[in-house]
């Protein structure tokens, strides 16, 4: 008898019993092959999907953590740069004016260091040489136009700390200006001509002996850095504590600058 292989489609010769046996075997083989093809077309199993999702989550979490770390590091560096810039700007501004303290070219204005406390300095200067120190916004160029630094050419100036703001006061006008913010500490110390011996500051006569003013300024970052704890005690070159350890998460920096009062003691 003649038959056909159901899977291969080929002609088969044999007895009726043989053809029936071959047909049964071929039918089972075809059914198994069909099932494998169908299973292959069904895609991933649930376990495979869960494993893939887990691996994707791990990779995403790692990328996100790296991004956050990079962002925090960048922000911290930017705050440090800003902090140092503010610190130098403030010190240079104070030093520039303190050098002029006592400027009295006519010897009739009685310019002097008026207040010399640990946290406050106030001084006068006759900038326009009109025999007094009561002017503000002095026209240094004598051109009837206030330009550039002339807006701050005042003859009686006070520096002090208000909260965390370094303030500059035009005493004659009664106006205050914030020089910088985020200040942790400000100290002034006063010395006689040798720059070592502290000057007495109780009376006007004592303050006339001041020749050197030391400024110690500590500034801090605006935001906390939770990877850092400030355990530093800030001490000036003479061993004086400017700021005790704060034990917080602020980054800080201190600069100490000495200014020679070249107009003091010229009488």
Describe the structure.
With 267 residues, the protein is of the alpha+beta class. It contains three helices and twelve strands. A five-stranded antiparallel β-sheet has the order 3-4-5-6-7, covered by helices on one side. Strands 8-9-12 form a three-stranded antiparallel β-sheet, with helices on one face. It has a two-stranded antiparallel sheet with strand order 1-2. The longest helix is centred in the N-terminal third of the chain and has 53 residues, at 46-98. The chain is elongated, with a radius of gyration of 42 Å.
Could you name the key traits of this structure?
single chain, about 270 residues, alpha+beta, five-stranded antiparallel beta sheet, three-stranded antiparallel beta sheet, 12 strands, about 30% helix, disordered N terminus
Percent of residues in helices: 25-40%
User: In terms of per-residue confidence, which ranges show pLDDT below 50 for 5 or more consecutive residues?
Assistant: 2-9
**Overall body shape:** elongated
Order of helices and strands: EEHHEEEEEEHEEEE
Largest sheet: 5 strands, antiparallel
Please state roughly what percent of the residues sit in beta strands, choosing from under 5%, 5-15%, 15-25%, 25-35%, 35-45% or over 45%.
Answer: 15-25%
Helix count, per DSSP? 3
Question: What's the end-to-end separation, in Å?
Answer: 141 Å
Q: SS-based structural class?
A: alpha+beta
Number of strands: 12
Query: What does the average pLDDT come to?
Result: 82
* Gyration radius, in Å: 42 Å
Spatial ordering of strands, largest sheet: 3-4-5-6-7
